[in-house]
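Input record (one chain):
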Amino acid sequence: MSHLARSSGILPRRGRSSLSDIFTFHAIAVILTLAASLLPGCPAGAQDGIGVGMGYDVVNILPQRFRDPGDKIRAWFPVKYVCGETQPGDSLAQGTYTTLINVLNLSKFKVRVGWWFSPGPGAGIKGAQAEIPSHGSLFMDCPFIIRNLLLFGVNVGPFLEGFISIEDLNEAAAERTPTRVTAVYSSLHKQVHNLPDLLPRQTEQSYCQRDAQGGLVVTIKNQGEANAAASKTRIALDRGAAYDRATPPLAVGAEASLEPVPLPQGEGTIVFTIKADAAATVREMNESNNTAMGACLILR
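The corresponding structure, as predicted from the sequence alone:
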């Protein structure tokens, strides 16, 4: 897992150990939205009118120590993650959410950490382990979380939430636990009108729609309030090729299935990324929902 190691310049604020106040910024978002509508040149109901609220918070995660029956004492850092764009009926306010988890080694020696995913009801999923060099760090962001859940066969939609439990695999005594974990949360709430909004539509589980020849079929939808001009969609296979597919003009509410993309030979799980309007030629209501990750389990 050495590809996870990356230096970090984030200095976490002290004294923040609870998630209870992470999303208090929604009140600020509402205020900013109302204020934007009153600014000169931005009258309510104007063409392309926009109200924007941005939230950002940094939380230090405290270790939880316990011992299973007959097992040794372990030090765990349970971290909440929220990723993607909320849908009607979701528990959080409508917006786009991201999570970045930083794991820091305070020791002058290398340390090992491991982690479990808890994406919802049912048993958790054992992840992997990684070594962190002296005073080094690694991070887990939303693409990392989504890619791993897809590889484990979890059906990932446009919005997901759950927990990652990070274990310090060194001695769990308080003075012998050099690992520190910080979670960075951000949210973007936008109200933009009279523009198109292109996004990949999930027609099958994990976006894995295939034709009779086994090719991957991607569907792009315009869920905006204006017609969308022709654009380009890019489908990139993990550790593989990237394919550009022409996307026709789409009326409001219309969708189009694009030319199939060939999948590699052999068996296994293939993870891919879909990006609508890859060349950014269409001005949209929401630019942050153009990308989605999916996976196909190939059995020959």
